Design the sequence.
């Protein structure tokens, strides 16, 4: 009988072991990306203008400015504080921070048929440009380029992206006094609007 | 006659002798053997721990229509899952959320959260589907019996994505904010009393 006691003792010790509540777990991640993107309007339409500019002057991507608003029939540059401006609008989109950059190829309205200044004549008129998402005051506002290829930018960094939204470009002719008569010819500028996404 | 009696007596003695020996030497006792199999559960590693749905947005910046499909977009399998006692399976799901922090509040026209259908197949007779919105969407399935998955294992299927507002309301018109999105599905097996 004594030989049995240790065996029973061992059995009792095993019997009082406390059952554990076990748990096991696994996780799965579901991932994806939304690529950063921005688009500019693929077409523009007349939105508004000052009294002396009509909607018919804008077609496609060209604003044909009435020559009488630039120079009179003697060739003298028109000087006036009355604004000559047009606003065009299109739909763009952006889902992230971005930068809007304007570039004026001619640095204003310029006669590019002559490559060197002709003494005694004016061959440029200053322009003022705005570019911004409609309804916001942030953007390139009141920029006046001073030379060919000038650029101006606005960073929409840390600002809520617009989603799909109207985008405005406003172009104004600055009719300040000229030092001499305007050189005859065609006056043009080419405004390039670019949106870039920071790398 | 005399000659035959002793022979009988001898025979009787031989028969009695074994009976006498048993009564004197037999003892009995009992030994109880006791042990315990601890109640436990096991969940094997998923065949894929990351389900990559790749680019989520379509050409217009909204959720790509193909991601809204009720067809399975991605799946993973847990080959072995079991509990040897009454148990509870907890199926926890969190929506896919934008991982980058932005300096501005979420615009009303953009989405930073995406819900989806997470369907678990193979635990019990019924499939279980959760569609997480708030990040605390889980369900518990209690079973009073031990259970182990069949040879086809436990399968998790993902489908039917949709963008959500800041208020966690599904809205397909929203544009996704650029960035990386991540949601999580957690499968937990626990033994219960």
Sequence:
């Amino acid at each position: 009988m004594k030989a049995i006691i240790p065996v029973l003792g061992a059995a009792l010790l095993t019997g009082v072991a406390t059952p554990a509540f076990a748990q096991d777990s696994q996780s799965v991640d579901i991932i994806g990306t939304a690529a950063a993107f921005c688009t500019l309007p693929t077409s523009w339409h007349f939105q508004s203008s000052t009294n002396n500019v009509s909607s018919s002057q804008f077609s496609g991507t060209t604003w044909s400015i009435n020559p009488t608003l630039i120079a009179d029939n003697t060739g003298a540059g028109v000087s006036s504080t009355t604004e000559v401006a047009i606003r065009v609008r299109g739909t763009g989109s952006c889902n992230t921070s971005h930068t809007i950059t304007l570039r004026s190829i001619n640095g204003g309205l310029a006669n590019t048929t002559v490559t060197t200044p002709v003494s005694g004549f004016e061959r440029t008129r200053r322009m003022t440009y705005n570019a911004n998402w409609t309804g916001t005051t942030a953007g390139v506002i009141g920029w006046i380029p001073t030379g060919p290829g000038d650029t101006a930018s606005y960073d929409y960094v840390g600002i809520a992206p617009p989603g799909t939204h109207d985008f405005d470009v406003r172009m104004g002719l600055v009719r300040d006094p000229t030092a001499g008569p305007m050189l005859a010819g065609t006056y043009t500028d080419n405004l390039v609007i670019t949106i870039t996404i920071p790398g | 006659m005399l000659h035959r009696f002793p022979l009988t007596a001898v025979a009787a003695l031989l028969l009695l002798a074994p009976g006498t020996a048993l009564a004197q030497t037999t003892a009995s006792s009992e030994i109880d053997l006791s042990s315990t199999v601890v109640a436990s559960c096991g969940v094997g590693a998923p065949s894929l721990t990351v389900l990559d749905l790749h680019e989520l947005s379509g050409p217009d910046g909204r959720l790509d229509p193909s991601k809204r499909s009720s067809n399975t977009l991605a799946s993973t399998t847990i080959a072995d899952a079991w509990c040897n006692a009454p148990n509870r399976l907890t199926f926890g799901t969190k929506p896919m959320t934008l991982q980058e922090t932005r300096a501005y509040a979420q615009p009303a026209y953009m989405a930073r959260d995406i819900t989806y259908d997470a369907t678990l197949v193979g635990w019990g007779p019924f499939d279980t589907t959760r569609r997480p919105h708030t990040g605390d969407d889980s369900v518990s399935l209690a079973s009073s019996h031990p259970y182990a998955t069949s040879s086809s294992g436990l399968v998790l299927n993902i489908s039917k994505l949709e963008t959500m507002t800041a208020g966690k309301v599904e809205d397909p018109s929203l544009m996704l904010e650029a960035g990386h999105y991540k949601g999580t599905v957690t499968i937990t097996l626990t033994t219960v009393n």
